Amino acid sequence: LKSNPSNNEEKEAQTQLMKSDELQRLHSQALSAYQQEDYEAAISLLDEVLAVCVWDAELRELRAECYIKEGEPSKAISDLKAAAKLKNDNTEAFYKISRIYYQLGDHELSLSEVRECLKLDQDHKQCFSLYKQVKKLNKQIESAEELIREGRYEDAINKYDSVMKTEPDVPIYATRAKERICHCLSKSQQATEAIKVCTEVLQLEPTNVNALKDRAEAYLLEDLYEE
């Protein structure tokens, strides 16, 4: 402006300056809302800023944190994936994505993302620790599924018992393990046990189709046709 003042350029520059002041104000308000744990308000403010500052990785990471707190993991993953692309060597984003997938019970995607973190930094302590855990769990689940395909139901039950011991703190893995144990018991005609385990699963997930089908098979073995 100083080098080449003209009405048009001055008008444009003033508009941009006002816009930038407004965005800084919204950014400050978003940080304040986040610190006060008003995550819904923070998301709304960050939406406005990110509509203009599309390539800001740190703002995306902040909004992802808000989404996690608000129980919207898929939206958090979307922001973190963008942040991983926008910022070089963003190990933290890959670690967070992997943790979210793990908590959701998607061990395969969790393993894939934590490997991306270790490609960037093989000495990353958090990623390496998570990698060891997910890899062990993934291997046990794959092994159990292979045993089911081979019709070795008793061995598969033992393997899924190991899965529950490997991950006692994330409930989804125990539920999935019990669902598969219920299937194995039904297939190996251990009707009473199958009904018991399937019922445990259905108390947690009343619309679990697999558990309903397997329990129905077990009821047939017991001649409980109404059930």
TrEMBL record:
Record protein name field: DNJC3 protein
Coiled-coil stretches: 127-154
Taxonomic classification: Eukaryota, Metazoa, Chordata, Craniata, Vertebrata
Pfam family, one: TPR_8
Domain of life from the UniProt record: Eukaryota
GO molecular function, one term: protein-folding chaperone binding
Protein source organism: Chordeiles acutipennis
Keyword entries, A-Z: Coiled coil, Disulfide bond, Repeat, TPR repeat
GO BP: protein folding in endoplasmic reticulum
Gene field: Dnajc3
Residue windows of the TPR repeats: 91-124
InterPro entries tied to this protein: DnaJ_C3_Co-chaperones, TPR-like_helical_dom_sf, TPR_rpt
Any one GO cellular component localisation term in the record: endoplasmic reticulum
